[in-house]
Every structure is written in structure tokens, then in C-alpha cells.
Amino acid sequence: MNKKMQILTEERTIFEEMQKAGVHYGRAKRYTHPTMRPFLIRTLYNIEIFNLQLILQKMNEMVNALTDYLKSEKSILFVATTPAASNRITKFALIFGQPYMNYKWVGGFLTNFSTTLSRLTYFKDLLKREENKELEEYPPKERAQLERELNKLKNVYSGVVKLEKIPDAIFIVNLAHPSHLTAKREALKLKMPIFALAGSDNDITGVNYFIPCNDKAPKSISFVMDYLEEKIKSKLNLFKNNG
């Protein structure tokens, strides 16, 4: 088999896997955002269908961009607060040693980063007191209050506890989610590069790198992130070996 035939066969296999995972499904036509129309190929029973070739093209562009960031030791904040995406995105961020937010977006997290750092300092102080069993020394009512507060902080800030400076970029799954809209606005205000998995109802204005895909279904999100993870690992290993 010559190289061209091999590439075509590999692409055909990937397209079949994409279809099985439902990566090509958008939302109902009435929700389509104008910026996503160039990536749609047809409508099936009123559901928008993405162009598989463009999805693959954008996945490979994302691989290259993320690899460059990781090689440069830049930090990327991964944001995925929907049940469909939170676990897989958290896993991806942890694999590559990146910060993440998987519970909810805190308004002003980026644009008021001095306040964010003070909250993180307080969170780390509470964690230290918990580890040293200092919380047990407080009166029952005060201890219960501190433990409730600590649990809330764990939900929100556990993935960003090691942040000491504003991230270099942000990666958002589902830009149309209400709290993710706020995250995107903050990133745009700071001129921060934005990566995204974008459904047919997403506004990709100002987004630097995106993959048009089904950003609502766990199976689709997992397929895309598995692809990115495998390709990035391969590129980083090649980089290390050549280094």
C-alpha cells in the first residue's frame, strides 16, 4: 500500500470512529450560531451535521497548537463544568499537569486575578489546617462552619490550587454554557488565547483554536480528547527524544 492510500485508509477509519461516537452531531437547526455554519455540511431530521473532514483538520490544528504550548511550558486553564465533559477534561488536564475548573466558573477569576490569588491563599491555609488537624481544636459550631467553607472551596478551586500567576491560555468545552460565556468574555478582555470544543450553537468569535463537534455528549467529547491526548503524547515524546 502506497503512502497516499495508507493516509486515505486511516482517514476513513477515523471518520467511521467519529460517526460511531456521534462527534458529527450538532444541535437542532434553530440553535445554530452563524459563525458555525461554514463547518456544517447538512441537516438530518432538523439536526445539524458537521463536516467530518473539517473536524479532523481542526483536531490536527489543535494538536499542533497545544503541543507547542506544552513544549514551551505555558499553562492552559481547562474549563468544563458540565457533567458530560468535566471528568474527561479533568483527566486530560491532570495528564499534562495543567490547571482546571470542573465545578463552576467563578466570575472575575481571570479579570480580577489579585482577588483570585487571595482566595487561593486562604484555601491553601485551610487545607494546611485540615491536614494538621488544627480544625479539630475549634469549637464545634465554628469548626462546622469552616469545614463547610472548605468543602465549597475544594469543589471550586482544587484544580487551580497550584496557580501562582494568570494562565497563558484557556481551553473551554461548550462556549454556549452560561458560565463558560463569562469565562470566554474574561479571556477576550485580557487578550488571552482561547482553545475550545465548539458545538453548532457556539459563537467562535475571537477563539484562536477550536474543534467544531458535538460538545454535549460524553462519548463525543471523550473521542476528541482521546485523539488529542494520543497525538500530543506522541509529539512530546518525539520532542524529548530529539532534545
Explain what the structure shows.
The protein is 51% helix and 14% strand. By secondary structure, it is α/β, with parallel strands linked by helices. Strands 5-4-6-7-8 form a 5-stranded parallel sheet, with helices on both faces. A 3-stranded antiparallel sheet has the order 1-3-2. Helix 6 links the parallel strand 6 and strand 7. The mean pLDDT is 93.
Q: What is the general shape?
A: globular
Q: Span between N and C termini?
A: 33 Å
Residue runs with pLDDT of under 50 for 5 or more positions: none
Strand content: 5-15%
Average per-residue pLDDT, rounded, comes to 93
Q: Please give the share of residues in helix.
A: 40-55%
Main pleated-sheet profile: 5 strands, parallel
Number of strands: 8
Which key phrases capture this entry?
243 residues, alpha/beta, three-stranded antiparallel sheet, 7 helices, globular
